[in-house]
Write a structure and sequence with these properties.
Elements lengths: L7 H7 L2 H7 L20 E4 L5 E4 L3 E2 L7 E2 L8 E6 L6 E6 L5 E6 L9 E4 L4 E4 L5
Antiparallel strand pairs: 1-2, 1-9, 3-4, 4-8, 5-6, 6-7, 7-8
């Protein structure tokens, strides 16, 4: 269960329509549209819904998929993973552990050291260049 519990009305007041679509309605942004694809500075990627730190910049890599990709979350408590069968296949959905916002999916085709590819919607995150853990 998410730690932050808000109504759809409350979320709509705080998020842009695009953020609401992805974070609260489990949508997907179009590939290659997020400015976070090109973000290469040190810092943290945080949840756009609740500002929870999700990924360190040092774990980001260019997957060529059109979405920001990471090989590991910042720690085990940053995200939660859930089975997703929406597209007639079994995938692993990734959500923010605090607000339950939909972030994207994780796939077993990433680089070392984990072999994982956390393929995230850029609109679901913000970049904090001052962030440090």
């Amino acid at each position: 269960m998410p730690k932050i519990d808000k109504t759809d009305s409350q979320w709509r007041e705080e998020l842009t329509p695009e953020q609401f679509y992805v974070l609260r309605e489990e949508g997907t942004e179009r590939a290659f549209t997020s400015p976070l694809n090109d973000e290469k500075r040190d810092g943290l990627f945080i949840c756009a819904g609740c500002e929870k730190p999700l990924f360190k910049a040092e774990t980001k890599f260019d997957s060529g998929t059109g979405w920001p990709s990471f090989y590991a979350p910042i720690d085990a408590d940053a995200v939660s993973e859930h089975t997703d069968r929406k597209l007639f296949m079994k995938r692993t959905e990734v959500r923010c552990a605090d607000c339950g916002g939909h972030l994207g999916h994780v796939f077993p085709d990433g680089p070392r050291p984990t072999g994982q590819r956390y393929c995230m919607n850029g609109i679901a995150m913000q970049f904090d260049p001052e962030g440090d853990v």
